[in-house]
Amino acid sequence: MSLFKARDWWSTILGDKEEFDQGCLCLANVDNSGNGQGTEMLHLAVLHSRKLCVYSVSGTLGNVEHGNQYQMKLMYEHNLQRTACNMTYGSFGGIKGRDLICIQSMDGMLMVFEQESYAFGRFLPGFLLPGPLAYSSRTDSFITVSSCRQVESYKYQVLAFATDADKRQETEQQKLGSGKRLVVDWTLNIGEQAFDICIVSFNQSASSVFVLGERNFFCLKDNGQIRFMKKLDWSPSCFLPYCSVSEGTINTLIANHNNMLHIYQDVTLKWATQLPHIPVAVRVGCLHDLKGVIVTLSDDGHLQCSYLGTDPSLFQAPNVESRELNYDELDVEMKELQKIIKDVNKSQGVWPMTEREDDLNVSVVVSPNFDSVSQATDVEVGNDLVPSVTVKVTLQNRVILQKAKLSVYVQPPLELTCDQFTFEFMNRNPDGIPRVIQCKFRLPLKLICLPGQPSKTASHKITIDTNKSPVSLLSLFPGFASQSDDDQVNVMGFHFLGGARVTLLASKTSQRYRIQSEQFEDLWLITNELILRLQEYFEKQGVKDFACSFSGSMPLQEYFELIDHHFELRINGEKLEELLSERAVQFRAIQRRLLARFKDKTPAPLQHLDTLLDGTYKQVIALADAVEENQGNLFQSFTRLKSATHLVILLIGLWQKLSADQVAILEAAFLPLQEDTQELGWEETVDAAISHLLKTCLSKSSKEQALNLNSQLNIPKDTSQLKKHITLLCDRLAKGGRLCLSTDAAAPQTMVMPGGCTTIPESDLEERSVEQDSTELFTNHRHLTAETPRPEVSPLQGVSE
């Protein structure tokens, strides 16, 4: 039970497929019973589109279980010549003892009726669409909101003596002696359309006009001056002002389209309650001696009487016999429960493991051949044609599932023709828990890479060591042979779509492979493909102890250059956006100045404002183009940074013989974002993740584990701290640290490190000279060789969920 939900006292559904609006709810003592408001001879007026009917309601006590019975007797009716919109009533002109009725038609005519007689009709000046209508008895005037978004007040006396709207068709009951022009008493521009108008009197000497707009709530004095106004943060649907218990203030009920009812005292929010529907009309009354009942009506006929607060709880908890606590037993029980929880988390993970067959199986088949007609958005990149390949995803469900959604993701620059699929009619998930199934698949390397000429020189080189004899590159990459077989055994060139080139060299005698390129980030794809294909090759040969390793120095300097370039583009984008915002503010200010000059009745010189406006406009366009260009460069830089990050993670895994779980932790720390934004960028996110690893599983002492991390991520001033943390991470791993999610395993472990790094020979002569030394170097550390984990995510890999 919530304190902020309206408590249902009584409710019902009116009619069958009926529609209601704010004029369809009236709360009054229409049967003139003794326990009502005490008004004698109260009648009910009902306005139809072409008719006005006045009824007398009488009630008789029921003698059966159906209760009281009510009868409606038609007193009189008026057939209208025009389609009616709304109406109001009151003692127009100060007449006492009876009420007159004023009806507003759809074409802007006010028709006044005095009981059975039609008095007169007047057209409102400048009318376009009808607005809300109310009558103020203190000023004897009608108040409405016109299509000009102005609150307008018309005196009844001015309406009575103005020119008759039906003067050309005078009848015996619609005569007028003389006519004058209809003049408005006062106006107030509120700048928006109004939903409703309500007039509330403080006392005999003052009253307030309340206007509910689309986004604001106004309280006006009798003369049209604003008493106060309240800006609303939501779209209102109806309102009801009423006198407050505090002297000089007024309470207002305002309902909105979020199923909420707000109670204001002047402009102060006093209470908010939730309703089961969106009301179009709200009233407050006394029902069965229950004061302050809130009556609401929705557009589909849901009528509810509710009250605020909660129902009293009659339940009292029984007294529990107090007994002394044995803290030693509680400690033992707590340790046992913690051990059970820890064992369950280690064995099952976050989600419980089920032994039964999966409800949904996802399988992917990649077509071995490219599409005959490329489906790529950009068919050409430079001089290269962009191919496309068809991927077939199969879903097999054992039970009926509920709204299965298939998402396919590939890493940039790869693109998909469609990445979202939703299956509506696979109904029912028995346990109701959302489940995610992943299926990873590899795409052919030729999708973004073509055979190319090998290069003898390159700026960036890395060497991968293996424990098996070198394999012919033709066997590993059969589809990339561009020359004779003899030339392709030990060297092979790759040409990426877009111009980048990578060269792969295999040593003839030293069980090593070299990958080199002019760009550091281009090395990752071929390196990862080489390791995967070597593993597949030796698996087919039945070799189980194959392993790769990396014994060179970690290329952090090249990696840091890419980080600095990416961070520089982020800072540049932030500066450009700030400058664009300043120029936009300046542009709008000049526009306002010019608009004020053009609206001025007396012409004044522009003082070169038009020239300044033109110059500012050109600056805004130039800055917008610069922001767009910087965003494109930032996207490309982030793609290069992700490729370099994959390469660094791969090299760390080979360098330290990390397991698949440890590599997954590194990937989660270094690649937390799929997209880079100004609000949350790669640098601050990765810095927080690495700092967490350094203070938990890679910490030197318990004092470091006790340090708290900053919970708020902000763009840093520079990348020095991030680069320092990455260097420290590699240093901790080199000294025996191990990655794990549990802090229990954070104690440093001892490990024997490789003795050094040797370069791959550039020629056969150089190779013969270092063959002896390199053999001795790697012989001393063969006992450290372990099976290299298969990378989980391929550079040309897609993930479907």
UniProtKB/TrEMBL annotation:
TM ranges: none
Organism expressing this protein natively: Mandrillus leucophaeus (Drill)
GO process annotations (BP): cilium assembly
Location of the PTHB1 platform domain: 444-551
Pfam name, any one: PTHB1_CtH
Keywords noted in UniProt: Coiled coil
Protein name: Bardet-Biedl syndrome 9
GO cellular component entries: BBSome; membrane
Coiled-coil region: 320-347
Record region (Disordered): 764-801
Occurrences of domain PTHB1 hairpin (ranges): 553-656
Limits of the PTHB1 GAE domain: 386-427
Keyword match Coiled coil: yes
